[in-house]
Amino acid sequence: MPTDNQPVNRLSIRAIDISCKDCSLNPICLPVAVNAVQLVELDSIIKRSRPLRKEEYLFRASDPFHSIFAVRSGTLKTYAVSENGEEQVTGFYLPGELLGIDGISMNRHTNFAKALETAAVCEIPFDKLEILFAKMPTLQRHFFQLLSREIQSDQLLIRLLSKKSAEERIAALLMSISHRHTRRGLSPLGFRLAMSRNDIGNYLGLAVETVSRVFTRLQKQGIILVDGKEVEVLDLSALSLASDAYELRAQTA
Amino acid sequence: MPTDNQPVNRLSIRAIDISCKDCSLNPICLPVAVNAVQLVELDSIIKRSRPLRKEEYLFRASDPFHSIFAVRSGTLKTYAVSENGEEQVTGFYLPGELLGIDGISMNRHTNFAKALETAAVCEIPFDKLEILFAKMPTLQRHFFQLLSREIQSDQLLIRLLSKKSAEERIAALLMSISHRHTRRGLSPLGFRLAMSRNDIGNYLGLAVETVSRVFTRLQKQGIILVDGKEVEVLDLSALSLASDAYELRAQTA
DNA sequence: CGCTCGATTGACCCGAATCAAAAATTGTGG
DNA sequence: CCACAATTTTTGATTCGGGTCAATCGAGCG
User: Fold this and answer.
1) What are the distances in angstroms from CA A37 to CA A20, A21, A40, A123, B230?
2) Which nucleotide is nearest to B229 (CA to C1')?
3) From the alpha carbon of A196, which nucleotide's C1' atom is closest?
4) Which of A156, B58, B120, B202 has the fewest CB atoms below 10 angstroms from its CB?
5) CA gyration radius for chain A?
6) Taking a contact as any Cβ pair under 8 Å apart, which residues of chain B between 19 and 58 contact chain A?
7) Three-state SS annotation for chain A
8) A10-19, B145-154, B167-176 — which is least confidently predicted?
């Protein structure tokens, strides 16, 4: 199965060096906001570093904030840890999606960001970005929208947690992932879940056992076919129905 | 009981005309961000209109977005309505708090904002604000922080919904309101809940009956004293404990 | 003063958590 | 490459928090 999770080899090195202009993800990452000239300028401030290996951190809570990040390949999760030490997964990030804006308010990150598999990111220093804003008002608008969209999607999750059953939550997550794959031009019907059942349960406010049971239930209903982390959607409209038409976000921060 | 919810009379007219400089809420509304000169400039773009009566809307979902609002007096709630028609309360807004930033991403509001009691607001046109940003970088930073803080507080709510019991949720809400009163220099121990039990339940993902039961339970435990909408906190530390040390946000959007 | 709507209380039920154990994967070292 | 250990996932049995349904009880108000 072809994947855009580049292993750490020559291919990935090439991927690191690619510019925004040539990046297949740029329509997701920077929708409409900038013209060709501006793109070059934006490109010039972006840092591309070596890929993260599975389990490595992109940043940690309390790290000083100075950049936001765009996922180039692989998957990351973010999670917060409360005083009493319990973790709350706050998001999953797929290629083309942005993370790290949690740090703006405190000037420190409040979440941990960890690679769920080998992953490459683009780093966008925030101070440089702010300077660009002055020159490129559309970019600034775009960034506001990004923050605002993040709020939107949090509120979708709130709705999910506040009103939906276990089955609806899981169906919504699967729909979301399917949808995000589509955006990248991939099939909406087959994908690999990089995150563990535990992560899913934590994110959706469910016990691991429940997650597992719902997967098998959806499979028995002929809606999906699960094999470990591999998921095949057999009946997309039924899945959509089961999620009660919930579109669980195009992830951002 | 003295209150800053101005009725529609001469007093409220005075309140409308007051400038940011003289507003007792300005330390909450605009923390640190601006100096005296800048304050005058900011003041000049703010529109103050007649107070809303109970049940009146400040804005509605799908309204074009052009302003954000600061609450001067009274309480508002925001809520979203999903395709299938169900409502989700997304926040309660007390004096000094900002709302309306939900509209930035779509250029339309996605929430309804309704007065829970007579309420006065300051309107801040966003296009004018953006122009000020260019002149006042600190104000811009401040605004980013506002958005980011909104995300933070949504994530606290997510944690609450995802991991906490009914009792912990309600205790957290009461702690939050108490805390927000304190910020305005009021007593943390006594306040009036402007919202209905229904609103509380909807916000916290609980049935009305559960809200009611938890209130009586907390009362039986000697932690609070409830009389309809009036709440007296008898044991703040016990309440804090019951909320599992959850600080449910300083509201913003 | 009666009516309506919100709040409370009780009885019952159900979905999902918890506890327990087996099964499947993944990783590790010889 | 295989055997063993550790982790993750699945399945089953049981429990329990909170939802639902129904009835009663106010409080505001026309």
Assistant:
1) 12, 10, 5, 20, 60
2) C7
3) D8
4) A156
5) 18
6) none
7) CCCCCCCCCHHHHHHHHCCHHHCCCHHHHCCCCCCHHHHHHHHHHCEECCCECCCCEEECCCCECCEEEEEEECCEEEEEECCCCCEEEEEEECCCCEECHHHCCCCECCCEEEECCCEEEEEEEHHHHHHHHHHCHHHHHHHHHHHHHHHHHHHHHHHHHHHCCHHHHHHHHHHHHHHHHHHCCCCCCEEECCCCHHHHHHHHCCCHHHHHHHHHHHHHCCCEEEECCEEEECCHHHHHHHCCCCCCCCCCC
8) A10-19
B155/A154 Cβ within 8 A: yes
Is residue B201 located within the same domain as residue B94? no
Kindly report whether the global pTM for this prediction surpasses the value 0.85: yes
Average model confidence (pLDDT) across chain A: 86
């087959």: which residue's tokens? Answer: A190
Print the domain residue range for A52.
10-159
CA distances to A94, A181, A188, A249, B134 from A177, rounded to whole Å, are 9, 6, 8, 9, 38
Structure token pair of residue B243? 């909320």
A102 touches chain B (CB under 8 A): yes
Pair (A19, A113) in one structural domain: yes
Distance to chain B for A49, nearest Cα, Å: 26
Quote the minimal CA–CA distance from B167 to chain A in Å.
Answer: 15
| Structural domain count of chain A | 2
A249 part of a folded domain: no
**Separation of alpha carbons B129 and B51, rounded Å:** 22
In a domain, B79, yes or no: yes
B127 CB within 8 Å of a chain A CB:
no
* pLDDT one-digit tens code per residue, A150-186: 888 898 999 999 999 999 999 999 999 999 999 999 9
